[in-house]
Structures are given as C-alpha cells and as structure tokens.
What does this fold into?
Amino acid sequence: MKDGQEKTSSFKTIVSVLIALVAVTGAFVAWQSSQSSGEASTLESNGIKAALARAKAEIEISANLYRNQINFDSYLLDYRNAEITMDQTTEVPTTMIDSQQALDQLFYGRMESINRAAVYRDLVDIDYFHEQFTSSVTNSFFDQDRYRQAMLAQVATMQAIDPQVYFPRVDFQRGRALDFALSGVILSGALVCFTLALVLSNRWKFFPAAMGCGMYIFSLVIAFAGFF
It folds into this structure.
C-alpha cells in the first residue's frame, strides 16, 4: 500500500514538475514569438522606407540625368552648327564684291555657336562626358548608365535604398513568429494532458502523461528547428 502511495506521489511530483516546465517554456515561446513579430514589423517598415527612398532617389537622378542630356544635346547641336558654318566659308566665291562681308557673317555666326556650345558644355557633368574628336564632335556621348549607377551608389552611402536587404528577413521572422505561436498552442495541449494525468485514476493517468511529454518534445522541435 505504501509502495502504491509512494509511486502515486512520485508520479504527481514528476507531473507537477513537467507542468511547471511547460509553463516556463510557454512563457519563453510567447516572448520569442513577440520578439520575432516585432522584428518582422521593424524590418518591414525599414524595407518600405528603403523602397520609398530609392524611388525618390531615382526620380531625382532621372531629372538630373535629363537635364544633363538636354545640355549635352544642345552642346552637340551648337558645335555641329559651328562645324557646318566653317564648311560654308569654303563655298563663298572670292570674286564677289561682298564676299568679305559674307565671310564675316559666317565667322561671327560660328563664334556665336562655339560660345553657346561652351556654355552648354559647362552645364554637363564632366565626369560622364565622353568627348571624341576623331572626325566630328558628334562622336561624343554622355554616359547615362554610368551616371545613374554612380548617383545611386552615392545615395546608398547616405541612406538605405535597397529594400531587398529587409524583405527576405521579414519573411523569415514572420515564419519564426508562426513557429513559436504553433509551439505555444501545442504546449497548451501538453499542459491540458499533464493536468488530466493528475486528476485521472491510476489506470488512465499514464496515457495523458505520455501524450503530454510527446507534445512537449514536439513543441520544442517546432520552436527551435522551425516548421514554417
């Protein structure tokens, strides 16, 4: 009789310890779930801010790029007009009385085009200005791709503009939050099983206790190994 009572007492003690362990584990899992949810929200917020910052940067870069390209095209146009004017000077007949007047007009027109071209050239970002005088200035070009990449890299040194740094981590943290939530649900089931083991008769108490142990172990696997 004493042996039976001692076994029952030992069983209840073990189950009580397991209930306490489940409660502590449940509190830890709930805290981890809260931490993961908070981290996911923070990362998502940072990702949205980065996406908005990138969109703003690209709009500003596109506007500056358009301004550079317009000035560059104006430079080419005026410089080409100066080239054409130079070619026209060879077509003025030297036998004409007013040939010198025509040459002067062409000369002043050419100088005006050159001066305008110089003004437009100064308005272009010179670091991305590829100037070639192999046969004509029209072989020159403004490197749009390199300009865009350099400007984005410059903005990236001052603020985060890559949302892909954050969003994959958001999915991971949300998955971990779901893992911990599922683990908490299973722990609740284990707690119910252990409570039943305390109140049931000797014949049935081992089944819910064993089931509670299995659920407890399963909850730990989900919490630490992950399910989602």
Observations:
- The chain is about 80% helix and 0% strand.
- Residues 64 and 210 are 71 Å apart (CA to CA).
